[in-house]
Write a structure and sequence with these properties.
Structural class: mainly alpha
Helix content: 55-70%
Oligomer: single chain
Order of helices and strands: HH
Distance between the termini: 58 Å
Shape: elongated
Radius of gyration: 22 Å
Number of helices: 2
Strand content: under 5%
Length: 51
């Protein structure tokens, strides 16, 4: 792993260190907003087809 990190010019992770990792869990508001935006786009496309 260290060799690969060196080849890619990456800094290896420190053993025992804590790293924050983003996760989609507990982000229900974001999912709801995305669905709302998708529905708006679909409605726009439908209005264009009907015109």
């Amino acid at each position: 792993m260290a060799e690969l990190a060196k080849e890619e010019m990456l800094k290896p992770l420190d053993n025992g260190a804590d790293y924050r990792v983003w996760s989609p869990y507990d982000y229900g508001d974001a999912a709801q907003k995305l669905m709302s935006l998708l529905e708006q786009e679909e409605a726009k496309e439908e209005n264009v087809k009907c015109s």
